[in-house]
Design brief:
2 domains, globular, alpha/beta, Arc Repressor Mutant, subunit A, 10-stranded mixed β-sheet, 11 helices, single chain, cytoplasm, D-Maltodextrin-Binding Protein, domain 2
Length: 312
């Protein structure tokens, strides 16, 4: 018998293109995922994909099951949502703040989808906050905060959405463009372009420069990602951004990107929610939609690790 978990695993394998990343997506070890796939192949008496291909090449049987997954899983999701609405309160409020200037690329499709499926929930992204979003969440002025900087607050839960790597964007003519990675010391002679936020909320400082006790020659701020890219492309500075925020500029060869250190600098994006609203059906659906949408539209992200989940 084919089970829903089998279909979800096949979808993860198609979307990630590798067994290792598919295992991360469905929160299994690689060994457990391989065992599950072999079990499914024995049930249908056919191989489902060609081993040792990247991206994964599916057989005709595998493609047929993927077609089934594309049809069945959305229907299951809709049924779960309808049942949740029948058994719970339909009223709700979702006022959110975003501590992430480049989040709108995946957040807006999430919000649009959510509005269509939960029209009775009041959703808003207020602008012009003159207070810190996370304390405002604890005071019930907000209902959700997108943040990469969790703070210990009573009654606040941090649900990890995905992991991302910070990369250094440089002009294509910059000497760094020929390197695979840069050291903190190499940024001491550079103008670093950042969003106009506290340095304590920027991974390039907290996880790269500050531990090495290094300061850039100059710090310049810009409100929008496109403004930052224009400055970088014209050689007026470098900037550190999430890998997925740089994708379109790298694909167009507008700028180049290098790793921050040989090991790279990885961060986790969270949805901060009050514990008393976490189990609301519409909140759970928003989190699931946010994760699914981000993996559908962003490149280079990974599922949150166990460490990130334990940090909630």
């Amino acid at each position: 018998m084919i089970e829903l978990r089998h279909l979800r695993t096949l979808l993860a394998l198609r979307e990630t293109g590798s067994l290792v990343e598919a295992a991360e997506r469905v929160h299994l070890t690689q060994s457990a995922l391989s065992h599950q796939l072999k079990d499914l192949e024995s049930r249908v008496e056919s191989p489902l994909f060609v081993r040792k291909t990247r991206p994964v090449e599916f057989t005709r049987a595998g493609l047929r099951l993927l077609t089934l997954a594309d049809h069945v899983l959305p229907e299951v999701r809709r049924a779960e949502r309808d049942i949740a609405r029948l058994t719970g309160s339909e009223q709700g409020r979702l006022h959110m703040a975003i501590e992430c200037h480049s989040c709108f690329q995946w957040l807006m499709p999430t919000v649009d989808y959510f509005r269509d499926h939960w029209p009775e929930v009041e959703i808003d992204i207020p602008s012009g906050h003159h207070f810190d979003p996370l304390p405002a969440l604890a005071r019930e002025q907000l209902d959700l905060v997108i943040t990469a900087d969790p703070q210990p607050l009573d009654g606040v839960h941090y649900a990890p959405l995905f992991r991302y790597e910070g990369l250094l964007a440089v002009s294509r003519q910059h000497p760094f463009a020929k390197k695979s990675a840069v050291t903190p010391q190499e940024l001491a002679g550079e103008t670093l372009i950042t969003y106009p936020v506290e340095q304590s909320r920027l991974d390039v400082f907290t996880h790269f420069l500050n531990p090495a006790n290094v300061r850039p020659k100059e710090i310049r701020t810009a409100e929008l990602t496109i403004m930052m890219m224009q400055l970088v492309a014209s050689g007026r500075g470098v900037c550190a951004l999430p890998n997925w925020a740089l994708t379109e500029y790298l694909e167009r060869a507008y700028v180049s990107a290098v790793k921050l250190g040989e090991e790279g600098v990885w961060g986790t994006l969270y949805a901060a929610i009050r514990e008393d609203s976490l189990e609301a059906p519409w909140m759970q659906d928003f989190l699931r939609t946010a994760r699914e949408t981000s993996f559908a539209v962003l490149s280079g992200i990974k599922p949150a690790t166990r460490d990130a989940e334990s940090a909630e």
